[in-house]
Amino acid sequence: MADLPRYVETRGNAVLRQPLALQNCTMYSFFLHADADALTEFCDATFNRPCGHAVEYRVLGPLVMAVCADTLRVRSLDPEHAKWGWGPERDYSFWVPLVDTRSRRLRWFLPYVFVDSGAACVGGRETYGFFKQTGTLTLSPSRDDPAELAVDTLLVDQAGPQAHAITTRLYTIRRVGGGPLASLEATWHSAEGAVETLVKAEGVRLAEVFAKTLWYGPGIFLDLFEGFLRRSVPMVLLKQFRDAAHAELASQQQVVEASSVLEAWHGGGLLPEYELAIHACDSHPLVADLGLRVDHQAANGDHIVRPQLAFWNRIDFRLDPGNVVWSAR
Q1: Strand partners, 259
Q2: 219-223, 231-235, 253-257: which range is least confident on average?
């Protein structure tokens, strides 16, 4: 740290200092079946090959989570930047569980993250390396009745010299059968209760669905659920900036690990049946990159993916400063 220059603070800069507090965050999570080979290639291309295997992560197994987070209040906990207030934020993303081969502990890789705020996009990319893209993130009719969650973002259907980038629907997560929920039913009144329910009621079934993991057997679901719902959630990110002079090179490239830490639990529970409809396009090949198992193709060409499990939880958490585990320089 002694070799780093002082960050130049400018007026109007949306990049607030970490750590960050995220309060009253409702998360809707969907377990998806995926192809482990496709995930392995994505992981290798993002982390292992660029750093020459100086650090190495392996895919846990054929599993991806689609996570939609609606946070009412985000603010900096830094004494100087806390005065710049707070704002709401939505983040819809895909999470891939990896194993750090050094510690053999779980790490989460977020290859696609969509946000509804320019400040969240710039701050997440610049500080940590979150691969955030802006878009219109729909949650309807309400956070207590999540019948449909969707992302509209800038994309290209078919790549080519005359391709026209347009903002349109990329994917939709919708409740099967429709109809109102009235309100979310909080059957998990503590993080411990949530973990116990998920491990005991769903762990065996999920272990069978996502069988033959690359590193662990059914016991990994205890670590997976506890990490996601109960304690620190460690993430691994590729932080890089394109070089101004040489477009094919990176002026900075790092592997960063950062954790979110649970501060308060406000409830949670299982969700009914949902389906994920993904628009096929060249710019965002979600199905191919993530190896998602497609149930069928809709009449409009969308790929339909059916989650194996869906749940929600409402929490407060803290995003702590990151740790650079590898740097190209």
Answers
A1: 234
A2: 219-223
Q: Is residue 191 a contact partner of residue 267, using CB atoms and an 8 Å limit?
A: no
Strand, coil or helix: what is 125? helix
Distances (CA, A) of 85 to 14, 75, 88, 94: 11, 6, 11, 28
Pairing of strands 105-115, 132-142: parallel
3 state DSSP class of 149: strand
User: Which residue is associated with the tokens 């990176």?
Assistant: 250
Residue among 108, 88, 38, 34 at smallest CA distance from 276: 34
Report all structural domains of the chain as residue ranges with CATH numbers, in order of start. 20-327 (2.40.400.10)
The model scores a pTM over 0.90: yes
3-state helix, strand, coil in the chain (%, to 5): 20, 45, 35
